[in-house]
Structure formats: C-alpha cells, structure tokens
Amino acid sequence: MTKRVTWMCTLLFVALISAAPAYANTTLRVIASFSVMEELVKRVAGDAVSVNVIVPVGEDVHRWELTPPNVLALEETHIVFYNGLGLEPWIRHIEAMSDDQLTLVEVAKKADYAPLMISTGQYKGEPDPHMWMDPAGAAAYIDVIAATLAEHLPKQADVFYARAEEARKALTTLSSEVKERLDGIPQTNRTLITSEASFGYFARAFSFQAQGIWGVNHETQGSAQAMAKMSEQLAAKRPSALFFESTTPSIHMDALARETSIPLAGPLYVDSLSRADGPAANYSTMLRHNAEVLHTALGGATAE
Ligand SMILES: [Zn+2]
Description:
By secondary structure, this protein is α/β, with parallel strands linked by helices. The chain folds into two domains: 3-176, 3-Layer(aba) Sandwich (Rossmann fold), CATH 3.40.50; 184-297, Rossmann fold (3-Layer(aba) Sandwich), CATH 3.40.50. 45% of the residues lie in helices and 13% in strands. Strands 2-1-3-4 form a four-stranded parallel β-sheet. Strands 5-6 form a two-stranded parallel sheet. It has a two-stranded parallel ribbon with strand order 7-8. The relative contact order is 0.12. The structure holds zinc ion.
C-alpha cells in the first residue's frame, strides 16, 4: 500500500468515528430529575449506562434551583429523564440550554397511565404529576424509560426490555403487598391529610380519601386562607391523624395538629427517597414505609 492510500484510509476511519453517535464508544450518560426517577431508571439501565440525579435526596423537587455542578453535569449528558406535568418548573432552564446532543424525556406525559386532574389550588384542572405514587404508574414510567434507552442503545434493547419486564412484575407484587397491609385499616378511617395534595394516585390505587392543605406543584405553601379552610374541615370531620411529608416544612401541620388536637404522624415519602440508611432508600421501601405509617396512625388491625 502506498503512503497516499494509507493516509486516505486513516482519513476515512476518522470520518467514520466522527459520524457515529457521541456515546457509541463511551458510556451512555443519563440524568434523572429526582431520586425516585433515578431509581426507576437504574432498574432498567444496568451497568451500561451512567445514571446521575439533579435534585439530591431530601430536597424539594418542586422548588429546586439548578446548581453550577448540575449545569456542568448536564454538559456531559445524553438523556434527561424528568417527570414533567409541572413537577420540575426549573426544567425550562435545561430546555433553554439543550442542544441536539441532549434528549429530554417527559416521562409522566409519555406514560400510558390515566392522569388525575388537580382538584384544588392554582393548578386546578391540570394533570397531577405524582403518578409514581401508584406502582402501576411507576410501571408505566419503566416502559417509557426502557423504550428510550432501547432507542439510544439498540444493541442492548433486549436487555432493557427484559429488565423492564422484571421491574413490572416486582411492582405488581409490591402493589399487592401494600394493598394487603392497608386492607387492615377500616374504610371509615381512610382519610389521608398531608401538606401538599400529592397522594391522589396513591388514594385512587388503595382506596383512600386524600387531601392537602395546599394544592400541587409550585404553590404558595400554607397560606392563612388555606390553613383556616383546612382547620374548619378538620373540626367538622375529625380524621384519626394528620401526616407530614419528608420534603415539605412541617410547621403548618404542627400548627394544625396543635389547634385541633389531632395526632401528627410521618414522615411520608413522596417527592424524594430517604438517604441510604433511612426508611425509604428505594421505591419499594418507600411505599412499604408509607403503608406502615398509615397502618399505625389510622388504626390498622394488628395480626393475631
Ligand atoms: Zn410533590
């Protein structure tokens, strides 16, 4: 081979490498918006994909503001899985900075799962974003995640779909276990009062009446008007307990509990998992923990 042909071959080789997708010979890098989404993505992704998270465990996903490390990480990222339906108002800043290399996936919007409309507050009439609180909703997320990863790494599509199938089965089992635990709570005690009205899907799945002091998403928290309205309702129909969530300030619930002498229980986990050594370190333990808290506080039957 002459020197000239060798040079042409090298050029052709370089051109082929450059034309391939950016992640063809590197790890596919994915970011999830919050910890629950991160865990669901990891269940499907396996080791072939690097998965990070934007909102750290314990922080409020609704009110997060992007940090310089978030922005740096996004520059190296191929896919962002976010819940959408208004859960992460800050996603608009990522949309503004995204280019052709970055795919944004609004998982809840794409999920094959019937949305519930927000019934109170500023966002009344819009879909409630907290679909993952029903394991069937989480399973619908899994399908969106698997299809997206398969599209980006087609050679591994079968593995992603197999993991998704496994995750779906585990979520169905989890749903039955949670239902069984909650079945011990008398129907008359199934009132679930929290700060944010984020238990709509959970309530639909497990037969509860759920209500929040304030509405859903980026709402003004605990306005005097909302507090007075809830206080009035509590006085009229006294539930067995009030509940606080791990990522909302407990000051409003503390005040209501004191005012009405109704016991306060929690934390319930919704918008974030707990730290690894906490009671809700993954999706399954989060739902089981919530079921235990509800069972204890709402007078669930104890085993013989
Ligand atoms: Zn929320």
